[in-house]
Design brief:
Elements lengths: L3 E4 L3 H12 L4 E5 L3 H9 L5 E2 L3 H7 L2 E4 L3 H10 L7 E4 L10 H4 L4 E8 L5 H7 L4 E6 L3 H11 L3 E4 L5 H27 L5 H21 L9 H4 L2 H14 L4 H18 L4 H11 L1
Length: 284
């Protein structure tokens, strides 16, 4: 088992290092621009040493995770003098291993190990790591080691090519970040009838949990419910009229989301092609 170190002691680095150490991986070193952050990470893991800079860590450790912000990964890869046979892995969802090319020129192995998960805080990230999907990009034998790590973290893995990464990350943004945006827009509508954001969010949470449960347990397209799934033209027409009068800024968003929902309803089989055309006409 190679010794493991982390360059970057933020949320992702702390969560991964703690969970790997809990599963018996020898996480023995950390380096960070913030000494305080490095010390906090090291304090969570028995035998983990704080290194004063990335080069000292690279000189001492065999497998290094770069868990800095995305814009810093290529800088770290270029500035550190890597060693032949060493393994360098970044954890960015948007970047391929191409940004680790400087390490590859030193005959180091390079890879990506991205947890498909949302991390709002360190403790929440540690809790969320188990069961996550991990996107892996690496050649053998590093790829097999990263697959084993994913399994040991109670998750699964998917192998991606360099050209897959940007759309993979865009999909994650749509499913995670833009869900937050949709909930925010929904709570804004509740404010039109004088319900504050916190109360509206609390009211919507059971609906959101039910929707996620349906997606997981029923699956697409059958998990779709609501007026488009039923082909309810009258209800949608009333939505459009009310939005046009009271919140016109959301009218275009509602229409576009509706148009994207029509093919799901059609695939579910509860509407026919004629009703799909009528829905599209109403939403155009």
């Amino acid at each position: 088992m190679p010794t493991i170190g982390f360059i970057g002691a933020g949320t992702t680095g702390t969560a991964l290092s703690v969970r790997l150490a809990q599963h018996g991986y020898p996480v023995v070193g950390v380096s960070s621009r913030s000494l305080t952050s490095a010390e906090k990470l090291a304090a969570r893991i028995a035998g983990c040493k704080v290194y004063s800079d990335a080069q000292q860590l690279a000189d001492a450790i065999e497998l290094i995770f770069i868990t800095t912000p995305d814009d810093t990964i290529s800088k770290v890869a270029a500035e550190v003098r890597w060693h032949k046979g060493q393994s360098i892995v970044h954890c960015s969802g948007a970047h391929s291993i191409d940004i680790l090319e400087p390490a590859k020129t030193h005959d180091a192995n390079t890879g990506c190990f991205h947890p498909l998960q949302t991390f709002a805080s360190v403790d929440q990230a540690i809790d969320n790591i188990p069961g996550s999907m991990f996107a892996i990009e690496a050649a053998e034998p590093l790829a097999s080691l990263l697959k084993t790590m994913a399994k040991d973290l109670e998750g699964d893995w998917v192998i991606l090519k360099a050209g897959d990464k940007v759309l993979y990350h865009a999909a994650a943004v749509m499913a995670c970040n833009y869900l937050v945006t949709l909930v925010k827009l929904a709570t804004d509508l509740w404010q039109t009838f004088d319900v504050p954001t916190a109360q509206a969010t609390k009211a919507l949470m059971p609906l959101l949990r039910g929707t996620l449960s349906n997606i997981e347990n029923v699956g697409l397209p059958n998990c779709l419910t609501g007026p488009i799934a039923r082909g309810d033209l009258g209800t949608i027409q009333r939505h459009l009229e009310s939005l046009s009068k009271q919140v016109p800024s959301l009218l275009g968003i509602y229409k576009e989301l509706g148009r994207q929902t029509v093919p799901i309803a059609l695939a579910k089989g509860k509407i026919d092609s004629r009703r799909a055309e009528e829905l599209n006409a109403l939403l155009t």
